[in-house]
Write the structure tokens for this entry.
Amino acid sequence: MSTDVEPRLADQLANDDHRPVADSVTIVIFGGGGDLAHRKLLPALYNLHLDGLLPPRTAIVGVGRSEMSDDAYRDFAKKGVTEFSRRPIDEQAWHSFAGVLHFVKASFEDAHAFAPLGSRLDIIEHEGQLSGNRIYYLAIPPTLFAPTVKQLDRAHFLPGRGEPTQAGHPFARLIVEKPIGRDLDSARAINDAIAEVFDERDIYRIDHYLGKETVQNILVLRFANSIFEPLLDQRYVDHVQITVAEEEGVGTRAGYYEQAGALRDMVQNHLLQLMSLVALEPPRSLDADVIRDEKLEVLLSLRPIQGDDVDANVVRGQYGAGFDLGAPVPGYRQEANVSPQSTIETFVAIRLFIDNWRWAGVPFFLRTGKRLPKRASEISIHLKAVPPVLFNKDPHGPLDPNVLSIRIQPDEGFALGISSKIPGPRVRVYPVKMDFHYGSTFGRSSPEAYERLLLDVMAGDPTLFMRRDAVEAAWRWVMPILDRWAAAASPPPLYAAGDWGPEDANRLIQSTGRQWRQP
Amino acid sequence: MATTVTNRVWRQSTPDAVDKDLAEVWREIGEQGPVARSVMSNLVVFRFTERRAADRRDLSDPRDPRDSRDSRDSRDPHAPRDPADLPDDLLREVVARHPSRTIIVEQNRGRHDEPGRPVDARVGVSVFGPATAPYAVEWVVLRSACAEASWPSVVRRFARGDVPTSIWWTDDLSNAPTLDAIVSTGRQLLYDSRRWRDIARAVGVLSTLLDKYRVDLADINWRRLAPLRLALAQASKTPSTQRTGSLSVRIAHRRDELTLASLLGGWLAARLNCDASSWPTLAEEDLGPELLRIDLAHPGRRITARLSDERAEVEQSGMAPLVIAASHEDPAESIAVELRSLSMDQALREAILAIAHRPASQQ
């Protein structure tokens, strides 16, 4: 006989590796027929399904402007999974996954369009015995964020809005893709519009970089090992470099990129988020808001770069013609849909300082760009050199300082460079590495960032998502740089495609006696 | 000592998918048990495939039985070889001793007028070492027919920036195009001067590079002079060899050792500040088992030095002979030692520059 105090069978059988998520959920993807859904979201959801991590009763509803039947949407999804999933398609698993896929045509600004959408969702949830938990994913341009959210509210898609979330009541969560605005004012406007409808705790601003396994490992590396954390401060660290390099050109994104550029597209979000994780103080717990408070503290401690300081500490560039893996490629201004007079930067390098006790005086060098030699993201923490005596006394051949490098992509892992004696009668030193590599150590592919992040939303864990105050703090810090460039008469200097950015970027770091570490 | 490959996985790839496929290969290796990925440097091997490429044994051939056998006996380490014959078992032995991310560019000579992408790629991982402490290295093999201008972007794409990059030029440097672009991507240029068919031209290529870049030269052939240079240096410390007057240096060499003799001549000329009248003269002779014989004379003094595969020996009047044994490294060990030596070889640099700027009467 079952009693209330007896554990439920489901709890007894629960896999400890699986995180508790709701028993049922409806995931509504606005822009469900778009590129992001095709390449990332649907493959991520398929992989969660393969791993048994989706709730037992799940519905996935794509919403888009085009006409598409459920079957056509399933074909669309299957193509995306076949091409972009980290694991090959399993026909049996696919069959069960395809059954939860649906598509509804709707115009996001049209109030009347949301009524049939609501009816269809109700039917899907009724037939699937779903409890009404909903996740709304805005995979649409930022200009549509506010109207879409407003329609959700008007069409009564948010049951119990304004009431405290209680156990047993269905939830409604919102996932927002970057960019959150193109400057501080527009970011505030978007956040205000969303805040009129959703509580901050139900808003998940996604930065897919934060879902990568190695990025999550930064906190483990720092706070689960006694060897590193004591060294990570101004007494021992000489400088920190963060490089996010892309080998591709602007491709099909010219329309967006011409309005954005590298500072808005990469630095304001990805790079500052990575920097925050490297630099934050030990949080008192792993609660989402505790960690996000510490990240915010880092952003608020950034020394402003304003006026003439922009020219001294920030370098921009734009790729010209060059080579990509041996083949000639055009410059940015020769790309399709790019103005021949474009002054948009495709490369940024920044020297910044965090004015707090831990990092006082330690320069952080951030660098990102398109058409660089390779796709690679890496954080490297360069420790101070040993004194120029003993093994380091040769001024012509100084020892390589110790470097702790964290590789985010393509091959996730981290390494510690140390100096070692070469066997033999003479004392000669060679830089060797202690190298950890996810693939060769754990032998399985890491989940894609979107898998982890979608799972977090289902579990109601916002740790890896950006909070409003952090987004606006980041915008506040980059605005003087954008303003300076907007007022500048000269275009960004060119660098050859396939090179590591303009020569000014080398001068930026070499003027401090350091040099870029190439990932 | 040959090193046994205990496991390996190879995969056909494309130039765009190298990193992705390599990650898959590592996962496949990792699924069979943890293995340490070992990367002390990038080793970029340029080799040329205009002929006899089909004869070269394939690193990825699973039927290749040579992985677990000693490869030292298979060929004469000192015999000049066609570049296309650079043996893959030698490469394996080198990376087993100096674990590297090994990027092999198989350049189709004669078809490199236009810039372009590599036409083909393979990736692989080889596991070495005992079962209790296996270590593995990764390979990227690219087939290319592109112009030299394309090479830097290819090397930069695949080389890891957190370790030194060595360029191993397996071909005859006197037959090389301008190497500026490719040398600018590495810290060390490794070559074997025994391949040189035109010493003056090869030295010209190198001296141009030395003028422009801070590149560490590593010459496998030059290593063979080490015991002789040490013996001559030791002998010169005795009072009887302090130079007091005019100097004559004669280097006799075996027929196939002209390059070695030239390098020694360059080094002596640089160190002894030789001018046109005292520049070392080279002469081919039948020396039996010896490779070189050096007669160095100035008023009242005479030094005779000999170099063989076994030893270097220096004799001078009134002194007991000084003998220094040649190290018996196998070819792979010689190369691995050079790859580990990242400092500038000042003596080699001086020798190259001396040959490049030798008096017109000596050219």
About this structure: The two ends of chain A are 62 Å apart (CA to CA).
